[in-house]
Write a structure and sequence with these properties.
single chain; 379 residues; Spore Coat Polysaccharide Biosynthesis Protein SpsA, Chain A; 8-stranded mixed β-sheet; 54% helix; 13% strand
Amino acid sequence: MIMLFSVSFAIIAYTLVIYPGLMVTIGLLWPRTLSRGTDLPTVTILVAACNEEHHIGEMIAQLERLDYPSGLVECVVATDEGSIDRTHELVDDAESKGILRVIRPDPGQFGKNVSMDAAMAATSGEIVVFCDASARWRADAIRKLATAFEVERIGCISAYKSYWHDDGFGAHSYREYWNFEGLIDRGSSVLGYVPNASGGLHAVRRELYRPIPNHMIRDLVDPAQSLGQGRIAVLDTEVPYLDAPWVGVDEVYSARVRITQRALSSTPYILRQLWKSGRPWTILQFVSHKLLRWILWLPLLLFFLSSIPLAITGFLPALVAVAGFIAWFGLAFVQASFPQIGRKIAADHALFLLLSFIAMFEGTRRSLLGRTRSTWRSS
């Protein structure tokens, strides 16, 4: 029992403390600064939008204010027939004004990746900037991303993500989580591989783009595809942007289930791409930064179950562990039952973590059962 307790604790400590601490240290001591050229490449800005009526209007206004020569940039919105709110109405109106183009896959085809494939086939920019309808960036963001590709070995660049939404359960926790993720990604960038490109705003060389099934996550695949074709994937800390988090217990839970399920479905393909890169340490990066987190519910559960009988025998580390679990569950209960009080004592973070681990368990279960889950439409 002590062996199970020790091994599970070691996995948890490595995943949540040791590896992140190593990446943060590398990023602070040897930060990667991207050089930027003066020549401007042609750019395609591809906005993925389905049921985004609350955000697409501001995105359209943002595209109108682009700080990039109009002859070198094309703006397109990728959507499909599954969008049932006013998104299509708003983007069709913007298309009639010449602000952007709307591209849909063939009738009967659904899904974010299918829609993005259709948009890629209909555009020609050397650099493709992928963004969500909810992303908000500075006027010079596209110019900075595009000119950083003057360095030939760069294949994928991720912008620096944060959140602008302040209300509701989950927003505060997501903001803190991604602030920490940004520090880890700084170190990953030094090593030439950021495992997760920010879905809200990232850019790739068109020549490196390869279609993938709907159940895979483009944000995870784009960096791996770049590595698999001999380039690197980095973080651009000079291009920050804001996005809207999932808010509310139901939305946070369902999002975590979907992400875990799709991420695990993407993992075999990603590992093959990283193996092709000839950079074996990138596999360790992916496993340490991503895969272990998605399945961390298992060592966490084993740690909890092994700590109880050991605590009964008076084993001090187990007593401390049980006390920690009681405090965690207690804070989560306070947040769920008395949210106003819970927020004042940071109990929202406790509930967010507990909900995330339960959701990751469910996502893992569905993945092991062979189920697939795509953005915009389930299968």
